[in-house]
Amino acid sequence: VVGAGTLGLLAVALLGRVSPARLALVGTRAPRLELGRTMGATEIWNVRLDERPEPGFDLVFEATGTVDGARTAIELARRGGTVVLEGISGQAGGIDADAVVLGHLRVQGVFGASRTAWRWVTELFAAGLLDTEPLVSHSFRLEEHAEAFAALADRGGNALKVQLSPS
Asked: How far is the CA of 97 from the CAs of 48, 94, 104, 105, 112, in angstroms?
């Protein structure tokens, strides 16, 4: 999984349900990478420290919303592997088409979900098989909404999901 934000961490939790031989999380923020380990990642890699797992993954899920994240996802897939691009970068530059062609990669975009997918995730929640509580990094009372938004806006504060609750 490339990207240690909310969607990347959810992907780790979901993929961990099928017990893959390797489940790597690639990101830039140490606290989120460590959270990924507790949510099921068997390996974590901080690209700001020039760390990258060895390529060769059957499936790579990208959840960064950056061109660099998409490129990293393509680089990590094994020959004939699948890359799912979830993030929307809105940037020019794109990925290396030759890497896709020469690597015999299947690249799949994803936006939205089917009714079947929503039903499946709802069933996971109902059965207690998908714990999203670790994703809530901050909790505020509704009256503290200004502080909640400030925590969310502070990139150095490591807020992941900020929850507002009624008194």
From this structure: 25, 9, 11, 10, 25
Q: How far apart are CA 1 and CA 10, in angstroms?
A: 10
User: Smallest Cα–Cα separation from 79: which of 57, 63, 64?
Assistant: 57
SS3 string of the chain?
CECCCHHHHHHHHHHHCCCCCCCEEEECCHHHHHHHHHCCCCEEEEHHHCCCCCCCEEEEEECCCCHHHHHHHHHHEEEEEEEEECCCCCCCCCCCHHHHHHCCCEEEECCCCCHHHHHHHHHHHHCCCCCCHHHEEEEEEHHHHHHHHHHHHCHHHCCCEEEEECC
Q: What pLDDT score was predicted for residue 92?
A: 61
Provide the residue count of the chain.
167
Query: Does pLDDT of 140 surpass 70?
Result: yes
Please report the pLDDT score of residue 69 as a whole number: 92
Which pLDDT value is given to residue 114?
86
pLDDT for the residue numbered 51: 85
